[in-house]
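A quick aside before the break. I want you to see a complete sequence-to-structure record at least once, exactly as it would be stored in a machine-readable document. Don't worry about memorizing anything.
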Amino acid sequence: MPLPAGPIPPPTWDPSGLPLFHPWRRSGRAYRQLRLGLRGYLRTAHQLFIEDEDLVPLAGPLLVAGNHPSLLDPPCLLAALPRRTAVLAAEWTFSYPVLRRIMRGTGMIFVDRQKGGATALRQALRMLEQGWAIGIYPAGTLVADSEGRAVKEGLVQMAALSGASILPVRTFGTDVALPYGKTLPRPGRAVRIRFGPVFQPDITRGDLKDPERVATVSQAIMDRIYAIE
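That is the input. The structure line, written in C-alpha cells, reads:
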C-alpha cells in the first residue's frame, strides 16, 4: 500500500476537520468522553500512575505496542495516551451490544482472527497514512508476563508497510486488578503504566518475505517492551 507523498498530517482531534459523513468524524467526541471516563475511574479505583508520558510523540504515524496480561490493559492505555489512538480489538469484544457500540463509536479496530486479520491490517494502514496512533498487543491474546514473550507478526507487518515508529509500553498490576477469567475489576488494586523510548524497527517491506527475519524483529520488539521496569 503506497504511502502519501509529503509530510503526514497529525491525527485529527477535532471531528469538524473531517469530511461531513466520514465515520471518524462522529467518533471524535465519543473518544474524548470515553478517555475522560476511563481516566477518572482508573485514577479513583486503581490509583492509575502514568510514567514517562513525555516520551509519547504527539503527531505522526505511531504504533503503540504493549504487554497484555489483563483485559484492563486497553483501558489503561487509552487513559494514559495523550493523543487519540485506535486500538486493535479481538472479535469477541464486539459480541456484546453495549461494548460493541462503545468500541465502534470511538474508532476502535475490529480484528477477525478467524480470517487472519487482513481487513484490520488494511484499516490500520489507512489510519497510519493519516497520522494516527494505533495500539496493538503483539502477543495477540492475553499472556502473563511470566509465561514468556511469544509474539505474532502483525505489528512487524504494519511497521514495515507503513514506516511508522514504535512506542513500547508496559502495564503493571493490571493482572491483579483484573485477573484472567474475571469479568469485574477489583477496586483498590493499584495499576501503573510506563512508556519507553520510541524507536524505528529494523525491517523493510522486502524483509517480510523472510519468516526468520520477521520472527527476529518481532522478538526484539517484545524484548524492548519487557525491558521497561
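Two observations worth writing down. Residues 1-16, 18-23 have pLDDT under 50 and may be disordered. Helices lie at 23-46, 73-80, 97-105, 118-129, 154-162, 174-177, 211-226. We'll return to this after the break.
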